[in-house]
Amino acid sequence: MKERLTIAMDGPAGSGKSTIAQRLAEKLDYLYLNSGSMYRAMTLLSIREGGDSTNVPMLTKLAKSCRIDFLDNGKTTLLNGEDVSDSLRTPEIDRAIVDIAKTPEVRHEMVKQQRRIGEKGGIIVEGRDVTTVVFPDADLKFYINASVEERAKRRFAEQKTRGIETTLEQVEKEIRDRDQMDESREHSPLRTAEDAIVIDTTSMTINQAVDFVLNRVEVG
Ligand code: CDP
Ligand code: CDP
Fold this sequence. Notes:
The protein is an alpha/beta fold.
């Protein structure tokens, strides 16, 4: 097996990408990059600046000048040096992120930062366009999926543990809306790369999904 691979995973919300990628990175001693956290940090920044997500010059300036770093294998996100990890997974950001993610000038800057982090290989990166746009030459690509009902259940359970007041119906609706926007946007939409291995985790435990991916990595 080639040393220090670049492994890329895309898929919709709640499919299990982050959990699988993080566990795999620990097992292989690779870097883990959650590209969604970059878009989330950028969204937080734009909300703090007044939240006008249609102001492309302002967004471009913010995207060009901000620095996003990860510590502790992705568990901590630093936005211009500030630990914002606990402020990124809120329903407010879930709603606002769509406008940020569809802005090509912002994507351009985020992709630059992702390629900088991944330039040496030995990385597992996940998101919506990492198999198609960010690392089109990745050594291994996966598309992680699950039914929308199962993904909503997972996300609802997560939000409940974090004390976020919501209902399963509301979470499912938000996931469906975000899927639709991620799949239909003009720039870098979510799609399955032709050479990606597709995994449906609907009826898989996390351990089964991790073992499946690990097996494919070892086979090469
Ligand atoms: O954790 P979850 O799957 O809900 O989302 P995430 O990976 O944190 O990504 C949040 C949002 O950021 C997505 O719904 C996309 O709109 C955007 N995103 C993107 O456009 N491109 C990426 N490579 C990663 C995320
Ligand atoms: O990154 P993505 O949004 O694709 O999903 P995730 O954050 O890895 O997973 C969402 C939630 O579903 C987490 O709480 C996982 O523990 C859980 N999960 C699960 O129960 N079974 C799986 N096979 C994968 C994830």
